[in-house]
Specification:
The chain is mainly α. The chain has four helices and no strands.
């Protein structure tokens, strides 16, 4: 699961550099904020997942923690999106969405390309 966050970080860096090169600073910051709105909650969820995996004694507790963690991930992503739009006046919606989608969907491309999607390694 930690690899997921590392792949997302690489995708975000590539997208931000590419957007900065072609479209400028404001667009790059928008893409960065969009990517972080997905990557930060995912990183927190991975951290919580690792904590849950250490305590596998109570399956019901682990399932509840997973549901609460996923709900918190969605809620945190929405809060981060709202804060991004509220606090950064030059935010461009299209580049924000590009960063968000690139980080959230890039991992599927990586796993599909290397044939590991769904495997437990």
């Amino acid at each position: 699961m930690k690899k997921l966050v590392y792949f997302q970080l690489v995708a975000l860096i590539v997208i931000v550099i590419t957007v900065a090169f072609f479209f400028g600073r404001a667009a790059a910051i928008s893409a960065l904020l969009g990517g972080l709105c997905y990557m930060l909650p995912t990183g927190i969820m991975v951290w919580l997942h690792n904590l849950i995996q250490k305590n596998k004694k109570n399956i019901l507790q682990a399932q509840l923690a997973f549901i609460v963690g996923q709900s918190s991930k969605i809620f945190l992503a929405i809060i981060l999106m709202c804060l991004s739009f509220a606090l950064y006046s030059e935010l461009s919606g299209i580049y924000f969405i590009i960063g968000f989608i690139a980080v959230s969907k890039f991992i599927y491309l990586v796993f599909w390309k290397f044939g590991h999607y769904g495997d437990r390694h």
